Amino acid sequence: MELLSGADMLIRSLQDEGIENIYGYPGGAALHIYDALFRQDKVKHILVRHEQAAVHMADGYARATGKPGTVLVTSGPGATNTITGIATAFMDSIPMVVLCGQVASSLIGEDAFQETDMIGVSRPVVKHNLSVRHPQDIPETIRKAYHIASTGRPGPVVVDIPKDMTTPNERYEYSYPKKVKLRSYNPAVRGHSGQIKKAVDMLLAAKRPVIYAGGGVILGKATEQLTELTRLLGYPITNTLMGIGCYPCSDKQHLGWLGMHGTYEANMTMHHSDLILAVGARFDDRVTNATEKFCPGARIVHIDIDPASISKTIDADVPIVGPVDSVLNEMLSLVKGAKEKPDADALAAWWKQIDEWRAFHGMRYETSDDVIKPQEVVEMLSRLTNGEAFVTSDVGQHQMFAAQYYKFDKPNRWINSGGLGTMGFGLPAAMGVKHTHPDDEVLCITGEGSIQMNIQELSTCKQYDLPVKIINLNNQALGMVKQWQDMNYESRHSQSYMESLPDFMKLVEAYGHVGIRIERKEDLEPKLKEALAMKDKLVFVDILIDRYEHVYPMQVARGSMKDMWLSKTERV
Amino acid sequence: MRRIISVLLENEPGALSRVVGLFSQRNYNIETLTVAPTEDETLSRLTVTTTGSDKVIEQITKQLNKLIEVVKLVDLTEGSHIERELMLVKLKATGSQRAEIKRTVDIFRGQIVDVTSSVYTVQLAGSSDKLDGFVQAVGTSGVLEVVRTGVSGIARGEKVLSL
C-alpha cells in the first residue's frame, strides 16, 4: 500500500472522489494542503478574492451541474468568511463540502492565532460537520462528507482539519473506501407504495387539481418524470422560485411561479384548488402567505425526501417520504394503468377558469417611452439568448424581475439564493457556472446594491478568464427595501438610497474588463446585443432603469394566497 | 403536553451539542436533559423532557431523527413507561425540625445520606412530581440546596430501545 502524508491523502481522496474543481483561499493552517495541491494537476483550484465568494462559486457549480461543490479555506477568518455561503447552500439544500484548516490539535482551545471553533460556528447551518482526529481517518472522512452532502436531502458538510493532521513528513497507508456505512443515516430510497396508490386515487378523482413543484424536483433530477406526469394528467402546474425550470415555462399547462411575487393565475389556482400535489417543495412562508388562510378547500399530497419538511407548516393529507424521481415513476405507472381517468368536464371547467385568471393580469406592466423598465430588460435578454442562458441573480427587485420575465424551459439554468436571500451571491455563482460551462451564455442579473457585496471577484474573473455578462439593473436604490418602505412606511426611505455610487465603467476597466452603460431606451437592444456579442470578454452592462418601479403581483401581508396587489393601485 | 423523548446517540464528541443546539435553534423547550453512555460503549442514551403541541413534538422527533448522529429514538409518553429522577437536597435541620424532616423523608421513601449538627442531605428518587411534592412538604424555607438529575425513562413491558 502507498504511504502518503495527511495532506496528500486529502488531495488524493478528492481525486478518487472525482472532484475536478475546488474553490478557495490559502492561509497558515491550510498550507500543507495547498502544498499537496501544488504537487499534482488533477484537482484544479480557483483562487477567489474573499472566501464567501469561494462558497458561492462552488454553489453555482453545484446548482448548474447537480454535483457537489468543493471549497478549501484556512482556519479562523478563512473559515468564518464561508458561513454566509454555507448558510445559503443549506437553505437551498445544495450539496457541498467545505474543507477548513484548523490550528494544530495541541493548540485547540488555547485561543491560538486564527483559531475558531468552526464545528461549533457552522453547526446550525450545515447538514453535518466532521472533525479529523487522526491523519489515517482522512480518506474515510472525505468519503463520508461527500456521501452525506449528496444523498437524501442534500446540503453542505464542513470538514475541520487541524494542521497536524496534514504534516508532510508523517506518512500513512492510503486507501480510499468504496462505500461508506453510517448506521444512523439511511435516507429513504423509495416511497411507501400504499401512500402512492392513495395519492394517485385522489389525484384522479380531483375536480380542481394543481401541481406545486419545488427545488426538490431539480435537486432530485426528476424534471422528466414530473413533465411526463403533468402532461399525462393535463393538470395545471406551478412551481416555486427554487423550482423554476423543473417544467418548461413556455408550456401552456405552466402557470408561472407562485407565492409572494408569483403570478396572479398561479396564486388563484392554488387558492381555489381541491387537490394540491406538492413535489419537492416545503410550503415556505414566501409561498403560503398566512398559513391559517392557506388554500381552504384543498387536500394535500406531499412528496419529499425529508420527512421533517412534511406537515411542518401545512399539514399533508397524504405524506409520501421518498426520492421524487422514484415516487413520480411509480405514480406514472399507476396513472397509466388506472381504469378511471381524470374527470374531463371538471377539468375543462377548471382550465376555463384558469385561463380567465391568466387573461386578467398576464404579468402586464406599464411601459414608458423614455424610461427603461427592468421588466423589459429581462424580457429582451430572454429573447436575445433564446431562454437558454444560465442566469444567476442577487437578491431584491432585480431577482424577482429576472425570475418573472426570463423564460426558462430547462432545469439548473436559474440560479439564485431563494432561501437565505443572500446579496452578493450572483457574481461568484455565475463564475462557478461559467468556469465549468465555458461555451454557455452566463448572465448575472444584479443590482447596484448587491453587486457591490462581492465586486472584488472581478479580479478572479480576470485571472481565470471567466467572461460572464453582468447585467446591472441600476435604480440607484435598494429597490426591494424601498418598495417595502413605499408600501408600509409611508415612503420613508430609511437608508435605502445608494448615494455616491462608483463609476462602474471605470471600476470594471480597472479590473481589466469592458463596461457598457445604457441610459436611453433606444440604446437598450443594440447595446445588449453588443455586450452579448463579446463572447470572450466579461462585460459589465450598467443600465439606468426606472427608479420608481415596484415588483407585482405582491401578496398582501398576512392574507391568503389570493390576496394580492397587482399594481401600485389595484388590490384583489 | 409534556413528553419524554429517549434517544440513542452515537457516543462521539459534539453529538450532544447538536441535540442541544437543535432545540435552541428551532425554539423548542428543554425541561430536563440527561445523557450517559450505554452498555454498548459506542452509544449514548439521552433523555429529554419537553413540552409542546402534537405538531411541535412531531417536528422535534423528525428534526432529531435528521441529525446524522441520532441512531434511534422513541417518544416514551406515547406508551406506558417508567420515569425516574434522582434528587439530592440539603435541608436546614435543627431542634425539633430534625425529627419532622426524618419522618417526611421516610414517607417519601427517601434516605438521609449525610448529616451535620444543622443539616441533613437527603436523597430521593421517583417521578418528577414526587420530587416536587417532597420539596413542597418540607417547605421551601428549609431548603438550602437542590440538585436534580433530570428525567430518565424506559418503556414498560417488553418494548426495548436498542439497535
TrEMBL record, chain A:
Any one biological process term the GO annotation gives: L-valine biosynthetic process
PANTHER family listed in its UniProt record: ACETOLACTATE SYNTHASE CATALYTIC SUBUNIT, MITOCHONDRIAL, THIAMINE PYROPHOSPHATE ENZYMES
EC number: 2.2.1.6
Domain of life: Bacteria
Alphabetized CDD domains for the sequence: TPP_AHAS, TPP_PYR_POX_like
Domain (Thiamine pyrophosphate enzyme N-terminal TPP-binding) ranges: 5-117
Record keyword Ribonucleoprotein present: no
Official protein name in the record: Acetolactate synthase
Record note on cofactor: Binds 1 thiamine pyrophosphate per subunit.
Sequence ranges assigned to domain Thiamine pyrophosphate enzyme TPP-binding in this UniProt record: 394-543
Reaction catalysed by this enzyme: 2 pyruvate + H(+) = (2S)-2-acetolactate + CO2
GO terms assigned for molecular function: acetolactate synthase activity; flavin adenine dinucleotide binding; magnesium ion binding; thiamine pyrophosphate binding
UniProt-listed NCBIfam families: acolac_lg, PRK06466.1
Keyword Magnesium found: yes
SUPFAM superfamilies: DHS-like NAD/FAD-binding domain, Thiamin diphosphate-binding fold (THDP-binding)
Domain Thiamine pyrophosphate enzyme central: 196-330
GO cellular component: acetolactate synthase complex
UniProtKB/TrEMBL annotation, chain B:
GO cellular component: cytosol
Known catalytic reactions: 2 pyruvate + H(+) = (2S)-2-acetolactate + CO2
Its EC number(s): 2.2.1.6
GO molecular function terms listed in the Swiss-Prot or TrEMBL record: acetolactate synthase activity; acetolactate synthase regulator activity
Protein's pathway: Amino-acid biosynthesis; L-isoleucine biosynthesis; L-isoleucine from 2-oxobutanoate: step 1/4; Amino-acid biosynthesis; L-valine biosynthesis; L-valine from pyruvate: step 1/4
Entry-linked PROSITE patterns: ACT
UniProt keywords, alphabetically: Amino-acid biosynthesis, Branched-chain amino acid biosynthesis, Transferase
Any one GO BP annotation for this protein: isoleucine biosynthetic process
Domain ACT: 4-78
Purpose: Catalyzes the conversion of 2 pyruvate molecules into acetolactate in the first common step of the biosynthetic pathway of the branched-amino acids such as leucine, isoleucine, and valine.
Family named by the database record: Belongs to the acetolactate synthase small subunit family.
Assembly behavior: Dimer of large and small chains.
UniProt protein name: Acetolactate synthase small subunit
